[in-house]
Amino acid sequence: MTKATHPTTSRVLVASDLDRTLIYSTAALALTMPDEQAPRLLCVEVHEAKPLSFMTEAAGRLLTELADTARFVPATTRTRKQYRRISLPGRPPRYAICANGGHLLVDGHTDHDWNTEIRRRLAEGSAPLEEIRAHLAATADPAWLRKERIAEEHFAYLVVDRERLPAGWVKELAEWAAPLGWTVSLQGRKIYAVPKPLSKSAALAEVVRRTGAQEVLAAGDSLLDADLLTAADTGWTPGHGELADTGWTAPHITALDTVGVAAGEEILRRMLVRTAGEDLAA
């Protein structure tokens, strides 16, 4: 590897989704491999005194090196509270995108100017949250609905029993929501309904403007990451998730075959090779 560049002067910005891209819950670890073949894991999130999310130890080392080589920006649909539970290895990110772009954190603090701008865009570009929430309440069946939540007063999500969720329900919801300016995404046990003006790519553009980054790398696994990947110069998707299931790709995106927690490790390795200016071996 070439000598690391301090991230405050790096021309490369790395924006990555977290859950099921770089970090994995206990349930998501089932995607990986049999227990006897599982790699050593690093816990990166604790909730209610219980370990909740993990990455491989090797991925932790790669992320530490990456954060010293480029400007690493977590880009997550998590709320600020949920994001702050995560303790990633390496240099703390200067910028973090939360609530699918609804909040921009700078040195861990909310940038209120950005949130004000997002609220303006939401008022002009999509139906109100109350209308979406009423529809969800009217159509979701208690037989498979476990929880209904509002995130940061910006979007809604349902926690569901996937085995009981009727085939076609998510598709019907997406078709209903699209003309109202909303996107629907199924990720694990959660169904997200997010207004289209609320996007990771919009917040990414603001970070790029502030930092003057000349190259953007990105990674993600879900429909809510598609705009982030499209906005990047180079990107990667794991072999699992909505994007893999639907076959979504773009000319500058590499769709990996690797699934589960090992995919996070491979994504970080490829990002690090790219930021170091070396050619990735086939």
Summarize the structure.
With about 280 residues, the chain is an alpha/beta fold.
Q: Which key features would you list for this structure?
A:
26% strand; 15 strands; disordered C terminus; disordered N terminus; alpha/beta; Rossmann fold; Hypothetical Protein Ta0175, Chain: A, domain 2; single chain; 2 domains
Descriptive account of the structure:
With 282 residues, this protein is an alpha/beta fold. It folds into two domains: 12-119 and 198-275, HAD superfamily/HAD-like (Rossmann fold); 127-195, Alpha-Beta Complex (Hypothetical Protein Ta0175, Chain: A, domain 2), CATH 3.90.1070. Helices cover 32% and strands 26% of the residues. The chain is built from nine helices and 15 strands. The protein has helices at residues 57-69, 80-84, 112-125, 129-139, 169-177, 200-211, 226-231, 242-246, 261-275; strands at 12-16, 24-25, 41-47, 50-56, 71-74, 95-98, 103-106, 109-110, 145-151, 155-160, 182-187, 190-195, 215-219, 234-237, 253-255. The strands form four sheets. A five-stranded parallel sheet has the order 5-1-13-14-15. A four-stranded antiparallel sheet has the order 9-10-12-11, covered by helices on one side. A three-stranded antiparallel sheet has the order 2-4-3. Strand 13 (215-219), helix 7 and strand 14 (234-237) form a beta-alpha-beta unit. Helix 1 (57-69) packs parallel to helix 9 (261-275). The longest helix has 15 residues, at 261-275. The chain is globular.
